[in-house]
Specification:
about 260 residues, flat
């Protein structure tokens, strides 16, 4: 009567009962699970077959729909679709701009343009989003436009926008914005100012990108000893680090390895 198989069936059925209660499923599931759990101790292999059929039905009609509606599943599905159709996200956001035309829709499209490397389009979209009476004072839009300007190669405009951002909302000038500001200064050829900015942002930047970009600038300026020291710091920083951190910093570690002499 009591054996590892029937006890295992009972435990699995208890887990399903918990899921039924938690998700508000039909009481019929409870009745079927209860009946098969009780009969499993008396009917042996027949009840085991019935349990397998019920488990498969529950997975198909209850568990899978829940999994497919989950945020993680939707994100995975979106990633698969985007890989198959890279322009899908852009077209959807473009339709939102055409249908709604709000500043938020334009911001989302501008961010998608940046992701696709369409920096000029991102600048136009941010400028359009900021055309309203309060748009020029919106820190999110201002930071996005400054980044788009920097990425498009307009370092001077990006510098002015970052300075404006700091005046309007100093808290919005986060580590990413400070890094973009350093990059804008370097684009302009203001190397001394760029180095000072990098010195400020590297210690508080959450990752190796700032350190790597600073090292590349130093190497470009012929300050090879300082650059090499930073490249070695990047390599050392990932030793013994958690796997997720190593994966996120893989690009900068790769660049550092390529430049170490």
């Amino acid at each position: 009567m009591f054996n590892p198989i029937t006890i295992g069936m009972f435990i699995i059925n208890l887990a399903m009962v918990y899921h039924v209660f938690r998700t508000g499923r039909s009481p019929m599931w409870l009745a079927a699970l209860g009946l098969l759990s009780i009969s499993g101790f008396a009917m042996g292999s027949i009840a085991l077959l019935g349990n397998f059929v019920l488990w498969i039905a529950y997975v198909i009609f209850a568990l899978l729909p829940d999994m497919l509606r989950s945020q993680g599943a939707r994100r995975l599905a979106d990633n698969v679709v985007n890989a198959a159709d890279p322009g899908r996200g852009y077209r959807e956001k473009q339709r939102q701009v055409a249908n709604v035309g709000s500043a938020d829709a334009k911001r989302a499209l501008a961010e998608e343009c940046i992701r696709m490397g369409r920096f000029g389009d991102a600048v136009e979209m941010y400028e359009s989003a900021m055309a309203g009476p309060l748009g020029a004072q919106d820190p999110t839009l201002l930071k996005g436009l400054a980044r788009a300007k920097m990425l498009s190669g307009d370092g001077a405009a990006a510098e002015q926008l970052f300075l404006q951002l700091k005046q309007i909302d100093p808290a919005a000038a986060d580590a990413d914005a400070e890094l973009d500001y350093a990059r804008a200064l370097a684009i302009e050829g203001k190397n001394d100012a760029a180095m000072r900015q990098y010195e400020n942002v590297v210690p508080r930047y959450p990752g190796e990108e700032a350190r790597c970009r600073y090292a590349l600038l130093l190497e470009q300026l012929g300050q090879n000893d300082r650059a090499q020291a930073l490249f070695r710091e990047i390599i050392e920083s990932v030793k013994g680090a958690p796997g997720y951190y190593r994966r996120r910093q893989a690009e900068w570690v790769r660049i550092a390895r390529q430049h170490i002499k």
